[in-house]
Amino acid sequence: MSLHPWQRYQALSLHVPTLSLLVDLSKTSLMDDALHRDPLLTTAFPAAFAAMEALEAGAIANPDENRRVGHYWLRAPERAPDAETAEAIRGTLTRIKDFAEAVHAGRLAPQKASRFTNLLVVGIGGSALGPQFVADALGSPRDPLRPFFFDNTDPDGMARELSRIAATEDGLPATLTVVISKSGGTKETRNGMLEAADAYRRAGLDFARHAVAVTGAQSELDEVAARGNWLSRFPMWDWVGGRTSELSAVGLLPAALQGLDVDGLLAGAAACDAAIAAHQNGALGKVTFLSSSMVYENADCFPSREGQQFLVPPPATAYGFQKLAVEYFARAAWQQHRLPFTIVRPFNCVGVGETRSVLDHRAGPGEVRLASSHVVPDLVHRVLTGQDPLRLLALGRTSPAKGLDTIVEAAKKYR
Asked: What is the reported pTM?
């Protein structure tokens, strides 16, 4: 006998207040007790959730190779399943920072130069793409080491990169090479390593005195580096996949050598986890992401409207691309965890921390260099350097009249 409509509604509906979600299946052809008998709901879903929790706790994910999946432990070692793994993560980070500091201070110097000023990363796939992205997005001309990459096995590409290194002030003699391979036997990476080693040899340099390895313990590369007495070797654990290895030595070592804030990088990644957890625990209502109009860098319709950033080619600059990437992360947190978000794209916020422009070009009439990529510091610089008449950079019908906010005002508005 069928249940009363109200009883049927109670049996076949689900209300999730935290998601403002109500699913009502009472008007379908399902049996009254379907949600209690359906094996998908009674067995499969609970089993999937339990398996995910087990993986995060350190269960074996790949029984054939007896491997776990734990890249999320890298940004939060306290989540590792055992003290040994947590200590390995923390210890490796300390070694990375100590090694980078020794390079920057000149205590660890190359064979025929006073200090290292170039960085060549040899890898492929996740062992190159992550470090490249971070180097592009966060780097600047002021970095203590300039990054270069062998990211495939194309000899012409490697030759071009070697030419770029040779064109720098100190050239190959001041270049530190980091070879990255999880298995230690990736042929493309090995080819890049051999090409690099040959370049050092032809320059009369000992490759080993300029080389560092990031690889699995006792791998082919690890043994080569140990026998050759390379400068150092850093671990790449089997529970970190290549596509998710940026926060391991794969990404953190090149970033630290480039002079980037690796602690800040890890803290930012951990903050995303913390925000999601805080929201799930009811302690966080929403997050606000400060983005930029540069997400519309390649827009072809003006004025650009919300949503157009998804329809046009992505930004060509690393700055615009990383801003768009953060917006995607915000939307992903909403889609997967229902963490509410607001994206703000402020213009011309004035505050401390303004620096001279990294762009080395003139500002048009008057030959005054751009002081900053921000409008107000640039105008102040033009006035102080005596540009007369004062020239405002504008294209087409762009109006020089802009809204201005101090950082404090912006923070009050967007919190």
From this structure: 0.70
